[in-house]
Structures are given as C-alpha cells and as structure tokens.
Amino acid sequence: MSEVTGILLCAGDSRRMGFHKLLYRLPNGKTPMAMSLEALIKGGVDKIVIVTNEATQPHATQLAARAGVPVTLCDGGVTRQDSVYKGLKKTGKGIVVIHDAARCLARPSLVQACIDSARLYNSGVAAIPIRDTVLHVTKGGEKVAPMPRDEMLRMQTPQAFDYLQIFAAYERARKTGLPATDDSSLYAASGHAVRFVRGHANNRKLTTPDDLVWLEEHLFSSSAGLGAQSGLRVGYGEDVHRLIPGRSLILSGVKVPFDKGLLGHSDADVVTHALIDALLGAAGLGDIGQQFPDNDERYRDISSLKLLGQVTGEIAAAGYGVRNADIVITAEQPKLVQYFPEMREMLCSALHLQREYVSVKATTTEGMGPEGRGECIRATAVVLLFTLK
Ligand code: MG
C-alpha cells in the first residue's frame, strides 16, 4: 500500500487570538498542536511533515522527538497556501493528508476515512453540510440574496489526496496566481473531482479566544458527561505552618512583606501545600508528605510552585484535568487582599488554567486560636478534577 504522509500546518501567526493558540496549554495537559499531531498518527499516517514558524518550531521539535513516527520540520510561508506548498515539497509520493493544527478535535477515525477515500478515489476531504440559512450580502447590505444551502458545504481538514495530483494542482496555482484558503478548491481547479468525507461538528478551527473557551468547555463536559460515567472528582487539602522571625513569608508563590515568615523544610508555602494535597487527594495519589518527604535534601527551601508544577503533570499523566480550585488562607496578619491577583496568577500558570478557575481568599479568626494570636498561618483548598478522555 502506498505510503501516507501527514502535513500538519502550524505556521499561522495566531493574530486573532492575542497569544499563540496552538501552544496554549489545555486542561488535559496538551497543546492543540499535540492533539492534532496525535490525531494524524492515530489515524494511520506513516510519517509527518510539521510546517512551523518561529513561534511553533520549538514545540514542534519536542513533539517530533516523542511522536513514534518519522517527523520532518519545515518552515512555513506567508500564506497558508505557501505553507502547504512548502510541506508538499518535503513529501514526494503516495498519499498526503493535509491538516490544520488549529482543528485539534479532529477524530483519528476521520483522518482514517479521508486516507481510505484517497486510496480509492484519489481524494478524501472532510466537510459538513450547512444547516443555517446562508445569505449573499453586498458590503452596504443593500442587496441580500439567499444561497442554496443544499449545494454548499463547510470545508474542514483533514484533506487527503494523491500526492502527485495535489502537488501538480499547487504548482499550477503558483503559476496562475490562483489563491485558495483550502486545498480541495485548488485540486478541483485542476480538473479533478473532489471526494467528500463527512466531517464532524466539533472539528472546529480555533480562531478566536471564544473558540478556546468552547474547547475547554468541550473537554470538560465530554468528561463530566451525565449519568453513571461521570468523571468528576473532588479533593480537599489543608496545611498549617508556624510563623517565626527571620524567614521570608511566601504565600501562593508570592513574597509578602512581613516581619515573620513560615517555618518549614521547603519555602513553607502553606497555600501551595494545601492545594497540592487537594490535587493529590482528588486523584488518589497519596499526599504531599509521601511525594516530597521533608527529610529529602532535594526539597530544602525549594519553591513549592515547582512542586505544584510537578504534581500538575502527574495529575494529567494519571488521566485528570483540573477544573477549578478554591483556597482560603487563615491569617490574622498581614492583610493579603492586595496580593490575591498575583497569587492567582502564580497558581494558574502552574496549573495551566485560566484565571477565572482559581480563587484565593483570606479570613481571620478574630483573634482566637493560634492563627488569631499570629503563631501560624493556615490554608485550605478544594479542587475539582475531571477525567480526560
Ligand atoms: Mg506544608
């Protein structure tokens, strides 16, 4: 059987997002780029060309190292069309499957169906029917004409083709200056009949920040589900450290100016410790003392945020994503409210979560008990995990 090469397009500049969407760390611990690559591999490609730009090249190198199939990297061009052409030039025979990395929910079965179709008919292109009414509207809106939607398709990727045919179509388009944002239209312009494969609605291209929120919701709700298969797990953590003079006060990774600090083997960050315990508890992975023993020299004065980062990786490896976390700090002094934004920021970046999913708040005990007397600071945390599929 002829060899199948996947061309993964990661050279877009992500202008509409404000940050690089393909490198965004999702609650499942993966980036959209990694998910798209996985879909191609699981869908049956034999080797891969990843078309990158400056921003995506380092991550592509990491992914290539553990892909399990041969991966070649190549620089993209100014337009999508240029990038595909450059990717095609790195290929050479058989069947080629072109895929936009921004469609990171493409199912391996869809990749496979496109390949199968290309084997039989020289092309297999993912598309879905249009259910909404489509109007052709002039710029000023003075002319509005309904379009025949049963004659229209919404194009997706993957798109698989016989290599020689699609390469010739791209060469021809370069000569004639024919622009296209989609491969099948160039293929058709070369006189070939396009064979369509039914795509799926959630094979959506990440374009705006809303798409990313949608994707996070999708990953969560497809795990949470309804009924017996619910994959939600709650965790609770608590920690107390003694306040003494001569130590820095580190809470949630933030150095808070105060005349005392917390005593402990690490940086004694009670907030991060409570959160780590909640995460480990929810995932059934023991507790912080088992994971990071306080007689282990490796953890002396270590930033607890580092430990949190490590635990976040373990949670993902165990098959869980973090949905949200809520933290209460009990301290008579100092006043902490001004540090909350920075504290949340620190935790969010270690958890790969957006800010609205992490809450940090504080209370006093009105002078009662050891916290009230300023002998210690206590933190409690609850987290919700969801099962990754
Ligand atoms: Mg502790």
What are the defining features of this structure?
389 residues, 2 domains, 60s Ribosomal Protein L30, Chain: A, 12 helices, Spore Coat Polysaccharide Biosynthesis Protein SpsA, Chain A, alpha/beta, seven-stranded mixed β-sheet, binds magnesium ion
Protein model, in words:
The chain has a seven-stranded mixed sheet with strand order 3-2-1-4-8-5-9, with helices on both faces. Strands 13-10-16-14-15 form a five-stranded mixed sheet. It has a two-stranded antiparallel sheet with strand order 6-7. The model is unreliable at 225-229 (pLDDT under 50). It folds into two domains: 4-222, Alpha-Beta Complex (Spore Coat Polysaccharide Biosynthesis Protein SpsA, Chain A); 226-387, 2-Layer Sandwich (60s Ribosomal Protein L30, Chain: A), CATH 3.30.1330. By secondary structure, the chain is of the alpha/beta class. It has helices at residues 32-42, 57-65, 80-89, 108-121, 163-176, 183-189, 209-224, 270-283, 288-291, 304-317, 340-351, 369-372; strands at residues 4-10, 47-52, 71-75, 95-100, 123-129, 135-137, 144-146, 153-162, 196-198, 232-245, 249-251, 254-256, 260-262, 320-330, 358-363, 376-387. Helices cover 33% and strands 26% of the residues.
Query: What is the strand content?
Result: 25-35%
CA-atom Rg in angstroms: 26 Å
Report the structural category: alpha/beta
Low-confidence stretches: 225-229
